[in-house]
Amino acid sequence: MSDHESTYVPKTGIEKWLDTRLPIVRFGADYMSLPTPRNLNYWYTFGGILMLCLVIQIVTGIVLAMHYVPNTEMAFASVERIMRDVNGGWLIRYVHANGASMFFIAVYLHMLRGLYYGSYKAPREIIWILGCIIFFLMIATAFLGYVLPWGQMSFWGAEVITNLIGAVPVVGEPLLIWLRGGPAIDNATLNRFFSLHYLLPFVIFGVVVLHLWALHTAGQNNPTGILIPKERTAKDTLPFHPYFTVKDGFAIILFLILFALFVFYMPNALGHADNSIPANPLVTPAHIVPEWYMLPFYAILRAIPDKFGGVLAMFGAIGVLFVIPWLDTSRVRSMRYRPTMKVFFLIFLVVCFGLGWCGAQLPDAQVVPGMPSFMLLDGQLNSYLWLTRLLTAYYFAFFLIIMPWVGLKETPLPVPHSISEPVLDGGIPEQKA
Amino acid sequence: MTIQNGTRSTVFKIVASAVAAVSLVAIAAPAGAAGGGGKAPRSGGFSFEGPFGTFDQAQLQRGYKVYREVCAACHGMDLMSFRNLGQPGGPFYDSHFKGGPADNPYVRVLAAEVQVPDIDSETGESIMRPATPADRFPNPYPNATAAAGANGGAAPPDLSVMAKARAGGADYIYSLLSGYVPAPEGLQMAPGQYYNPYMPGDLSPFWTGDPDHVPKGGFIAMPNPLADGQVTYDDGSPQTVDQYSKDVAAFIAWASDPHATERKRTGMGVLAFLFIFAGLTYASYRRIWKGIAH
Hints:
The complex is a heterodimer of chains A (433) and B (294). Chain A is an all-alpha fold. Chain A has 17 helices and four strands.
């Protein structure tokens, strides 16, 4: 809340001295007393969880970089040396490798929460756009990081993804060579990928600071989606600490339990066996698949018959997120009061899972085994190719057609005037915060 | 809505969040399932499976013997050193020897049984000498080209992380080694190729029989490496192909992930801590939010 007045009073001499020079304690104190909508549910805890994920990735990554060797001859063995001989190395590496997946679980839930409660709508467009930038940087960082162990999937994943750049008309080929540092993926590629993989998390950190700055300027959204009227601030909000520190804290611990289950009991469940085979440019794996969190975008890439078209669709799938604030024509933010949109949202959710599923299948494989089918243009109708195309069409239609159209046509449910109204309607006497 | 109801709906929301998270992960599972028409591996019934499973040290010792006497003729384990055999959790670990693996007489004897290449420190000439615990397992071939050349063009893969590098892990290794059967009638075999029902592959181009009943499995360049009675066991375990396959699969599983037992044990402590921490935090949450409508 931009108009949140500072209540910090420096008590000791050193605090007073510091406060007139660098009011960092005031900054922290103001953060802790920030008026926060009292009705935030557990879907709103993923921001804090994501901050923790970023810190975990940076800290474990710095330690891994002390032992990792970015050289095609030694990279695979150096990662295995971390797993075998470095004290606690297996733990640090498994936390880092599974941490990437945990990061994406949290970011997808965070984004879906924003989509459902209309957190991208005015006055929060910049928060949303900064979030989209963070998401894009996360994908880039995760891709670069996956190349570093120099296993078969690392190498061939890099081959497939960098090749996409070559599909750009005219400048594609020189751009590809510039990106790889040579005509093929080799030591130069690995070196620059390592350098960039170390750099990008700090760029993400910088954008996160902007994301939070924008958040605290525009104010947090809440499940009702309404802007809190100034005169209701006292009734509708609670100070961030202790109410939301304890709520976020509880959610973070539950998340860490899930994290620990993967790290300690199924550390390789989310990876691919082929990445334990050292990279071999002469042997192509039977089935090149990206990590699970890229599968929906990989599916969209393969849905388009033209290579450059596929690249545009894949980047478009992320790019469209940036303009959502202007695609949504509804005057109501939260889908809680938009029953029609809610249905389309649930279908969208199923479509996203479906795209992820399709991304892991061979395009020619039958969706329903044994069902009679016929050729439609370039593929059997009963194939993942056509299922992917159907889902891709819905993915884009959801943002480009449904969002503007439903916003204009639907009749939303009545929206409360303040948070405390629906909350306290049910008969609980009004409480003092 | 009463406060009690509010609590129940909060718990519901937590469960819903957890379910959402888990289903997101569930979609990831098929990513690991690469194509291929091998038979599903049989279970080796290994002691190290599950969250409480630990390696059976006697089995690891037998497995090392099978590796050393059979597999090592063609397969390297470049990431393994002899000292690893005596590290905590390893096949020959004994807490009795305080000086670590290098102090372990079993490890020293086992290392010394193997000759490794070196440079004579006086003359600089290439020599062979008995290995020490600090030495890596020597590779049977001087380089990958030599390995491929001696094996009809297919270099025998390194076994250091083989249990992680194949879908199915130790079960797959066990099934493959003990699963050799004569090639089915109607399968066109190339020279130097062998049939194994557990090997991933697609045999339809080489199948002359009923196209609806293409045999499962694939071609493998390795002939059946094991025979009953081939390796002598001193502990009375059955000297059968099935037992050899299980033991060497267990040894490779340990070599692929030598800290697995330590990992699982650490996990118990971490989870116990997190559950207690979660309980305390939830109690604090209930207390702080007591009487606050939300």
